[in-house]
Amino acid sequence: MQKEDLVISLDNVSLSYDDGAPVLKNISLELRKKSFHFLTGPSGAGKTSLLRLLYMGIKPSAGKLKIFDKDVTEMDQNEQCKMRQRIGVVFQDFNLLNHLSVLDNVALPLKVIGESKKRREHQAKEILDWVGLGGCFNAFPDTLSGGQKQRVAIARAVIGRPDILLADEPTGNVDEKIANKLMGLFYGMHKMGTCVVVATHYRQFVDKFHYNEIAINGGRLVTKPHIKGGL
Description:
This protein is α/β, with parallel strands linked by helices.
């Protein structure tokens, strides 16, 4: 495996919050392009905290974390902003902008990188149609159900075809039919070269799809995933 295939590297990474209690303990992990991973563990195991590290929402308390072969602790704010443009994130609480329409929420990552209005709206409409929200272009987030907000958040995360896609319980607010469709979308991203990490407590999906599994409990890595370039 070539070095440039490595997109995320954690070397004995630990994380503590302000109260000093360790949330993650000595996590060592390597994730590569075109790989798909389920992040599993009981509630409070540290799944969301690990995802926060991976999208640079927080920095490790100890150890070394590299994203695209760059140490996150050595990046300035501008470098971090550029890096985040290569990472799509589906937050558990959606993080939609209530003053923007559904269409504008989804198109926002393309606006940030300077795509024309015509192109970004075309792509946003296309992906919203795909996730079953073609009739909601002009709606605002506070008029949507939880499942609809989830699909908007996913559409926004994948529209820019990021190098890394991190999803925190992305199927938690949708029915099984939509959940399977969303998993198909994630699979398509992975086949195009994206490193996909899906945090889930939904064991049925983990057992059904047989992707690599990163299991944590009590802040520690329980089972080391079988790392490979693709599936």
